[in-house]
Design brief:
With about 230 residues, this protein is an alpha+beta fold. It is built from 3 helices and 8 strands. The radius of gyration is 19 Å and the shape is globular.
Length: about 230
């Protein structure tokens, strides 16, 4: 199972003011003042996982057991550290074995749960995917690579319960060496994987060369109507 090669949009172009500043920067180079231009260009790239955020791909505190929940379809996902709130689409697989991704033109602001994975909180790996950008600009998981171990991911379920996950690690993998078994296999604890595109963008194939994967484990849950 992998991300389809044609399921990506190019990085969003700098806003008009940034492009104008970049043009003015050509003159500034003569005097050696290029820091402003570099800063403006950097703003259009999604944050990439830091080496210090690699953490672990296993359960919290290295324990081979932990809490779990009964099966219930996911409704929405909240990631406070990066300002994500999205109702969840439920998507399956394409005929060629790749994951079906949200439409770049109409659903780039929505994350999607892979319906052939565990529901969030069940024993096993639950998969939630989302775009990093779209043809119009940033998308729902633009800042996914900025997450750090310990950050919280809340997934509200159809039965009213909210599954509370904690990030254990954030990593970037080349798509040519994507560790599918480690990402999609069924571990013996309630795991969550958040996936988006990352790394450099190949304009010839219109695809990012890497994937950003966030590993998280179920830490607790809140009953329906409970305060955070």
């Amino acid at each position: 199972m992998s991300w389809p090669q044609d399921g990506c949009a190019p990085p969003p172009a700098p806003p008009l003011r940034a492009r104008a500043a970049g043009l003015a920067g050509v003159l500034l180079i003569i005097t050696g003042v290029v820091a402003v231009v570099v800063a403006l260009v950097a703003q259009v790239h999604a944050p990439q996982p830091a080496l210090a955020a690699a953490g672990a791909v296993g359960p919290l505190n290295g324990k081979a057991y932990g809490p779990s929940l009964h099966r219930s379809l996911p409704v929405s996902v909240d990631i406070p550290a990066i300002g994500v709130h999205s109702r969840l689409l439920h998507l399956g697989a394409n005929a060629n074995g790749t994951i079906t991704v949200p439409s770049l033109r109409t659903q780039a602001d929505r994350a999607a749960w892979f319906e052939y994975s565990a529901t969030p909180g069940q024993i096993g790996a639950s998969i939630i995917e989302g775009h990093v950008d779209s043809f119009e600009g940033t998308a729902v998981f633009f800042r996914l690579g900025a997450l750090q171990p310990g950050d919280r991911v809340d997934v509200r379920l159809a039965d009213g319960i909210t599954a509370v996950f904690r990030v254990t690690g954030v990593r970037e993998y080349s798509k040519s060496k994507f560790p599918a078994r480690a990402i999609y296999h069924t571990p013996g604890y309630a795991a969550l994987r958040l996936i988006t595109c990352g790394g450099a963008f190949d304009y010839s194939t219109r695809s990012y060369l890497s994937s950003v994967v966030v590993f998280a484990s179920l830490a607790s849950s809140r009953p329906a109507g409970a305060a955070r």
